[in-house]
Amino acid sequence: MVNVRLSACGALIWDAGKLVWDDYLDHRQLALADGVERVLRWFTTFRDLDSIREMSDDANEAAHWHKTATVLAENEILITQDGPRHQREQAIEQAWRPWGPLARAYHFSTRSHAGTAMRTAEQDNEELEAKVLTDPPPPAFWSLSGTTRHALPEADPGVWRHRDLIDVLHRRRTRRYFGAAALPLETVATLLKTAAGPLPRADGPLTPAGVTLDPDGVLTDSWQRVFKTSPSGGARHPTEIYLYARNVQGLAPGAYHYAAADHTLEFLDRRLDDQRLVAAVGDQDWVGGAGALIFYTSVIARNQWKYTFPRVYRSLMMDVGHLSQTVYLLATAAGLHITFTAALRDQLLEDLLGCDPAGHLILGTSVIGTPPGE
């Protein structure tokens, strides 16, 4: 007697008119014949492989189902009880149980194997040189049409109270309490430009070679890299910054997009009262005392243009981690209180910022304010 069960580390997906079994542990996709889902349902718990014959009183049909089940077992879509694959899946199920099956499916489907092919920089460059001619990348910077634009003060080095890196690293703390004083616009402007503005290349221009303004004033670029104060996978910089001004000198309360190319704020003319703002940021009451929130969103097309494999989804999270830590340190250097949180109600913020969740993701926010007593 051989007991088998449907693998717990795979998923059925409908792709191009075919039912496909996606084994995310071994990165295999197998197209299934019509009716196979009946066999899979039969083995949702461990049962004797021969029990499949009970599915039909017709001998020929019963033999067909048995042959189908045997093939599924040979391909480890059905796994053998206490076999190596079962033991492997048990360990994974136990470790990932608190986060559920979709989290483990994402992780293992983007996990590289020992034999995963890796591309060289030369191969990437050769391919991109050709690709850019027929499939230009999405712009590294963009502006939102139909918005009121607010010019920001130029970056002012005088806002930095602490300039020594080691000193700032040791001073950095998460502080979820803020004073009543408004955030100075000069400080906000300097922080935004330092964190998200483009940096000069070694050869001098402010932005990379190939960067131009289209007729609508939108900055576009070739595949060549953009430089900023935070690292980004492939220099794609998918993270956009939105400022929610709650108590900032010279700014009407509400949501703004930071147009990094020309250092302006684009007013979205959407705002939330404190109760709804707190609700959007996970019911964390201390948000209602902040001077401003910096929302980090990810434009996935920027990374997808260069990297078509799903593992790169991980780099979107790393990108926000790098950038939000830079903002942490800058706020500390300016003597502000700051914290970061990813406890967000994405849908509420998508509506506020105008993000389409199909390709423009809400990933986190830095909450900033003046210290009490200032």
From TrEMBL:
Domain of life assignment: Bacteria
Secretion signal span: none
InterPro entries registered for this protein in UniProt: Bacteriocin_Proc_Enz, Nitroreductase, Nitroreductase-like, SagB-type_dehydrogenase
Nitroreductase domain mapped to chain residues: 171-365
Name under which the protein is recorded: SagB family peptide dehydrogenase
